[in-house]
Amino acid sequence: ISRSLESLLLLSILCTFEKLLIANRGEIACRVIKTCKKMGIKTVAIHSDVDANAVHVKMADEAVCVGPAPTSKSYLNMDAIMEVIKKTRAQAVHPGYGFLSENKEFARRLAAEGVTFIGPDTHAIQAMGDKIESKLLAKNAKVNTIPGFDGVVKDADEAVRIAREIGYPVMIKASAGGGGKGMRIAWDDEETREGFRFSSQEAASSFGDDRLLIEKFIDNPRHIEIQVLADKHGNALWLNERECSIQRRNQKVVEEAPSTFLDSETRRAMGEQAVALAKAVKYSSAGTVEFLVDSSKNFYFLEMNTRLQVEHPVTECITGLDLVQEMIRVAKGYPLRHKQADIPINGWAVECRVYAEDPYKSFGLPSIGKLSQYQEPLHVPSVRVDSGIEQGSDISIYYDPMISKLITYGSNRAEALRRMEEALDNYVIRGVTHNISLLREVIIHPRFVQGDISTKFLPEVYPDGFKGHQLTDHERRELLATAACLYVAEQLRSQRFLGTPRIPIAKSKRNSWELSVHLGDGIYPVAVSKDGSSFSVEVDGMKLNVTSEWNLALPLLSVTIDGTQRTVQYKLQVLTKAAAELSKYMPEKAAEDTSSILRSPMPGAVVAVSVKPGDMVSEGQEICVIEAMKMQNSMIAAKTGKVKAVHCKAGDTVGEGDLLVELE
Question: Where in the numbering of this chain does the ATP-grasp domain appear (predicted)?
Fold first, then answer.
């Protein structure tokens, strides 16, 4: 009898839903599907027509198209999604993050149909999703808040008046926003007017709600958030913090857990305030309370995200909890399985957001294309990759440019960072421009390693923009030697066919080569001689010994240089000495005069064009606005002059480098 009771108890614990629909795409849809498979829950994926062959579609038990590529017609199309729920008889919906994850109307419609929303109820979404209401609730719950205006800003003039009253700088942000969209920092009246316009447009585009609020901008803060987990029985926990200060354009780039900055007392105070806020709105599910923390460890409530966060894996690594599983259990009505004293901090986890972006343009402007080669570094110990793409996948202009989330775990921070460096070095992404070079430079930078960071880290460390890794003389010699050896290995391979020379009367074996390697703006002579499977290379009068298996079919090749193992991904050009001599006579392409023309720095859609032929424009004046991956970017004139021609109009789709406007 006791065994039967145990079996029934186990069954009741595991019994949740038979079928669950994921109202999202990409890596988060794949992430939810993995946990559902573990729990024995059947899954339904939704997709737009361009996502028909996406990884999340292949992973799910069922998949249904909900419309064309634009998000408003597919992943935000509530009517189409509700129809799929009825058709597939899904009992629950996990919204992931973004899209409809914090949309109270979607949660209400699900409830009306008797479908479980894997998240908090509509009251909590309404209260916490509205930044104005959430700030008032936070004050009442005795949570520290940032000084600011607690109402809705009506227009640009009122925005300027409020900003002056609060005192510059101010943060203008969407009331219903998140993910860095609909947010602008203003340091004067002009920037406030511009910020009001862009923030309201982005907010309407991303969230269907253009209401804005204004608050004091805390200069040079840390962005630290507390993960909370609550059930429908009044229980709530804080699952420690995540350090999210490395950001660009108010979007996180690198996150870690725990934070190097918090002591146990501050951590507890932040955790208790986060739980107090969750209980004040009768919150149930996983959620995140975000804080700004100044240099004196004073912390201020920023917002509460009533959904799963992008960076949740670092919390899972240090606590051992599966947050998606906990969300599903809570949604079914089960009480939490843990007490606050059960929540550990075991080790250290770091997450890098790998984006299809050009890091040399404003720390990352979107890039599109097909992944011609893709290999995740899963062979590196304690590495987790949350992705929703594969080799051959397209990165399009319609959605967020994230390729994956790369997470490493270690017994301490130093170990987690070492593993992250190795993982980034071994990550193969070709076909699109990506930000791995920036991520690698951040995690090895002395300031980051010491934990001396803030939300201003990137502009402070790279005031003139990111320029890539600056090679030392020793690194340059190693790189030149490796490139030259690879060139020779490829030449030798091309001379053989099935292990024998292509031409039986081929000349005797060649053992030395004089080459020229182009690296950056420099041309460097390199001499290579072969000895068995290794090469002796002379660079700058110094000799280096380079060995490897020389398997050129691999996307990555490990080489050993003077006894040190290296994995290198770099673009160089190698020429023979004769070819290098002849290349001097090749005419160089004249540099384009960019002061008189405006080209699109990224692929996207033209939202607005502010000029017409014959108009006079001033240096710095807005010419047009390009929207890429749901972010709006103002294109400005490089000089004062008359508009000669306009080559685009609102609604046009443009590619990187497309001509937009010409000046006389």
Answer: 135-332
Residues, the chain: 664
pLDDT at residue 506 is higher than 80: no
| CB 370, CB 394: distance < 8 Å | yes
- Chain segment 138-165, per-residue pLDDT in tens: 999 999 998 888 678 889 999 999 999 9
Which runs of E-coded beta strand occur in 462-511? 496-497, 500-501
Cis peptide before 446 (omega within 30 of 0): no
Largest separation between any pair of C-alpha atoms in the chain: 92
Alpha-carbon distances, residue 518 vs 469, 479, 487, 545 (angstroms): 17, 11, 13, 21
DSSP E strands in 467-531: the ranges are 496-497, 500-501, 512-519, 522-531
Q: What are the start-end ranges of the H helices in 394-472?
A: 413-425, 436-444, 446-450, 457-461
- Which amino acid is present at 300? Y
Q: 137: which 2 tokens?
A: 């609730």
Strand partners, 632: 627
- Which pLDDT tens digit goes with each residue over 385-402? 999 999 999 998 888 889
Identify which of 436, 552, 535 has the alpha carbon closest to the alpha carbon of residue 484: 535
435-448 in b/e form (b: 16+ CB < 10 A) is bbbbbbbbbebeeb
**Separation CA 89–CA 81 (nearest Å):** 12
Mean pLDDT computed over every residue of the chain: 91
Which residues are within 8 A (CB) of 337 and not within 5 positions of it... i.e. 6 or more apart? 329
**Is the Cβ–Cβ distance between 78 and 100 less than 8 Å?**
yes
Residue 339: strand, helix, or coil: coil
Name every residue whose Cβ is closer than 8 Å to that of residue 144 and which is 6 or more positions away in sequence.
Answer: 273, 291, 298, 299, 300, 301
CB atoms within 10 A of CB 169: 16
Query: How far is residue 639's CA from residue 647's CA, in Å, rounded to a whole number?
Result: 18
How far CA 380 is from CA of 271, 422, 423, 428, 564, in Å, comes to 33, 7, 6, 13, 18
Candidates 616, 601, 610, 609; CA nearest to 654 is 601
Q: Are 420 and 352 in contact (CB under 8 A)?
A: yes
Least confident window among 109-123, 458-472, 483-497:
483-497
- Within 8 A by CB and 6+ apart from 5, the residues are none
The pLDDT tens digits of the residues spanning 312-330 come to 999 999 999 999 999 999 9
Confidence of residue 412 (pLDDT cuts 50, 70, 90): very high
**Sequence letter at residue 116:** T
Fill in the DSSP letter of residue 484.
Answer: H
- Alpha-carbon gap, residue 314 to 309, rounded angstroms: 11
CA 509, distance to chain mean position in Å, is 50
Q: And the tokens for 648?
A: 């685009």
